[in-house]
């Protein structure tokens, strides 16, 4: 599976790590672990999905933005790249006319850290620019699922509510269908052209915004090509004369050569996520993606030989003592990057945004520091078979009780916040007020302490442009990230339920919850491959085969989105 959404000093926010600043810390936003996704094929239905065919009647018309041309155009499901800073005088305008009416909206959103004061200059400037007076009801992101469940169970909910994909559990999916408005009358087909920045959001992201058979959510678009990359210390590789491995066998052989425990240097950190990509395992970011039609039979990732082979290869790394001891003991999360930048491990896998985070951090500490991501190879050293992740995993809804004007104001706000890089609207949304929240230094916007504390989340969730990477302070990192994802995108396929928001029946929703721990036990030598095989057998008898039949019926009735 992919890693949890994690943070350094900020919340999961695309602008936080894709809009560069020399001050703000990078955010590592990963996939969604072992969750039942949400949706339904009709109003009030608690399980199911909306098919690709039916969705065509609902989805907004896609109209790519031409306001600012990227330095690297998007392709293969990967983001576009902007490697240059754009001078203030050269910023474009994507919202020539204020669309908001001056109405008021209360928005509940997760927030990591201390929420800013309600009357801060950033919020005031955004309210004025978008024409919508927003009152933010920021809630602790760590316990947001509890607050969300309680609010949605009540009769009084805020006008607008943000729902992260990792919180789509329990009764929340059915509450979404019951309590949030259908945006189709305002956005479906050519109606979205009233909101050009929203029209430029890719169709597969909008597909994920269909809940209960209706277009209810403004999605947070993301690339569908994997963002879990094997990153390596290119400086140390050059110094030692190492060649980048191009097969699993080469990697293991190199790892044994590179490890020097006496000098506190190990070849790698935990490599399980990359192993799943090397061996072509169906993605773990959404349980619907665990299923794929293979030779007419619906197969779950845990039933495949590729799944076992990935675990076995990762186990060999641990058994050879080439994995950093802290990863062996289970300290695999946020510390992996620190071990990497310290030179204690030479390869680690994580969200590719860590590339910029590490380079920007080390720029003032270690001038020789250099890193890159190596291409994922297949089991035999040939081309890999990669699988697409979901193209959106954070959703924003407006209450069914909202007036028509409130819905229009909501969409006006979303359209403003979805402005592309290189526009005046983007600069305000991403950086705040010049002179207060940021200053221009050497042609780059640099946030002040005020900006770091106040221009932090919130408006990200009410609109984002098509996926992009923009690190003008380190253009080579922008180029490296985008080109890596585009190369990997060329080998990326879509499973049967890609792009669909599926609600599993509650009786089976927790059926596979123990597999992640089992995977970690196996690769560390605490359990055997035979234990996985037995767990799969138990999974089948306890409901896995029934769940397969349910998914197959769903696929037969509604079709794939591909």
TrEMBL record:
Superkingdom of this protein's organism: Bacteria
Pfam families on file: SBP_bac_8
State where it is primarily located.
other
Q: Which InterPro entries match?
A: Bact_solute-bd_prot1, SBP, TAT_signal
Q: Does the keyword Signal apply?
A: yes
Q: Which UniProt keywords apply?
A: Signal, Transport
Where in the cell does this protein reside? Cell envelope
What the record says about family reads: Belongs to the bacterial solute-binding protein 1 family.
Question: What is the designated name of this protein?
Answer: Uncharacterized protein
Organism encoding this protein: Streptomyces graminofaciens
């Amino acid at each position: 599976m992919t890693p949890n959404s994690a943070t350094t000093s900020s919340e999961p926010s695309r602008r936080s790590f894709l809009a560069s600043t020399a001050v703000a810390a990078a955010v590592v936003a990963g996939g969604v672990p072992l969750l039942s996704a949400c949706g339904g094929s009709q109003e009030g239905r608690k399980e199911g999905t909306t098919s690709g065919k039916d969705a065509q009647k609902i989805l907004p018309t896609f109209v790519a933005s031409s306001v600012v041309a990227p330095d690297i155009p998007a392709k293969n499901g990967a983001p576009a790249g902007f490697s240059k800073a754009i001078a203030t005088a050269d910023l474009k305008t994507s919202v020539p006319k204020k669309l908001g009416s001056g109405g008021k909206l209360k928005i509940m959103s997760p927030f990591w850290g201390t929420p800013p004061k309600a009357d801060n200059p950033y919020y005031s400037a955004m309210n004025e620019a978008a024409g919508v007076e927003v009152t933010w009801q920021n809630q602790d992101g760590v316990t947001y699922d509890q607050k969300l469940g309680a609010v949605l169970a009540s009769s009084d909910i805020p006008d607008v509510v943000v729902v992260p994909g990792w919180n789509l559990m329990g009764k929340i999916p059915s509450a979404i269908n019951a309590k949030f408005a259908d945006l189709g009358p305002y956005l479906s087909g050519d109606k979205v052209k009233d909101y050009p920045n929203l029209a430029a959001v890719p169709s597969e992201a909008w597909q994920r915004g269909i809940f209960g058979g209706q277009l209810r959510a403004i999605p947070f678009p993301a690339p569908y090509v994997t963002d879990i990359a094997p990153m390596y210390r290119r400086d140390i590789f050059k110094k030692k004369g190492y060649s980048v491995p191009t097969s699993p066998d080469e990697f293991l052989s190199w790892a044994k050569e590179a490890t020097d425990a006496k000098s506190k240097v190990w070849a790698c950190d935990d490599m399980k996520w990359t192993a799943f990509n090397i061996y072509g395992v169906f993605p773990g970011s959404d349980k619907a993606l665990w299923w794929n039609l293979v030779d007419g039979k619906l197969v779950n990732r845990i039933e495949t030989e590729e799944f076992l082979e990935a675990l076995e290869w990762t186990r060999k790394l641990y058994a050879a003592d080439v994995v950093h001891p802290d990863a062996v003991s289970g300290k695999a999360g946020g510390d992996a990057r620190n071990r990497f930048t310290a030179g204690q491990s030479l390869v680690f896998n994580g969200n590719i945004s860590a590339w910029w985070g590490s380079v920007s951090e080390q720029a003032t500490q270690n001038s020789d520091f250099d890193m890159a991501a190596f291409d994922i190879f297949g089991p035999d050293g040939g081309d890999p078979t990669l699988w697409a992740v979901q193209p959106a995993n954070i959703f924003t809804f407006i209450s069914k009780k909202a007036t028509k004007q409130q819905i229009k104001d909501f969409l006006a706000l979303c359209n403003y916040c979805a402005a592309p890089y290189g526009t005046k609207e983007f600069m305000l949304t991403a950086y705040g007020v010049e002179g207060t929240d940021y200053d221009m230094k050497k042609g780059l916007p640099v946030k002040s302490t005020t900006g770091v504390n106040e221009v932090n989340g919130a408006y990200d969730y009410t609109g984002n442009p098509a996926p992009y990477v923009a690190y003008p302070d380190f253009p080579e990192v922008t180029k490296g990230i985008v080109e890596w994802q585009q190369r990997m995108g060329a080998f990326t396929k879509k499973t049967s339920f890609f792009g669909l928001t599926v609600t599993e029946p509650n009786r089976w929703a927790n059926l596979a919850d123990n597999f992640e721990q089992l995977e970690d036990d196996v690769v560390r030598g605490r359990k055997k491959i035979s234990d996985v095989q037995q767990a799969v057998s138990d999974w089948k008898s306890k409901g896995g085969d029934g769940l397969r039949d349910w998914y197959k019926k769903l696929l037969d009735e509604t079709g794939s989105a591909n």
